[in-house]
Design goal:
It is a single chain. The protein has 83 residues and is mainly α. The protein has two domains: 49 residues; 33 residues, no CATH class. Helix content is 84%, strand content 0%. It is built from four helices and no strands. α1 packs across α2. The longest helix has 29 residues. The radius of gyration is 15 Å and the shape is elongated.
Length: 83
């Protein structure tokens, strides 16, 4: 049961991140960006779409050199603790 709940949470989280990326992709397409300029724009756009709490928690995760699932878990807990 725990695995099912974890899977549902992971899918919902991925969908939110994908939605932000999709709008950033659309904005990049409107500006006709390609290559490194497109990658840079999408990275900044995705970061800008984060809430201040998510940005602070993401910065803490970078300081701790977390990546992947550990980073996602840390940021999720950090954001929920901030609320």
């Amino acid at each position: 049961m725990r695995y099912l709940i974890a899977l549902v949470v992971a899918v919902l989280t991925a969908n939110v991140a994908f939605a932000a990326d999709a709008t950033c992709e659309e904005k990049a397409a409107e500006k006709k960006l390609a290559g490194a300029a497109k990658n840079s724009f999408i990275k900044k756009c995705t970061t800008d779409s984060m809430t201040p709490a998510e940005q602070a928690c993401d910065a803490q995760a970078k300081e701790k050199k977390l990546a992947g699932a550990a980073k996602n878990s840390f940021v999720k807990k950090c954001v929920s603790d901030a609320k």
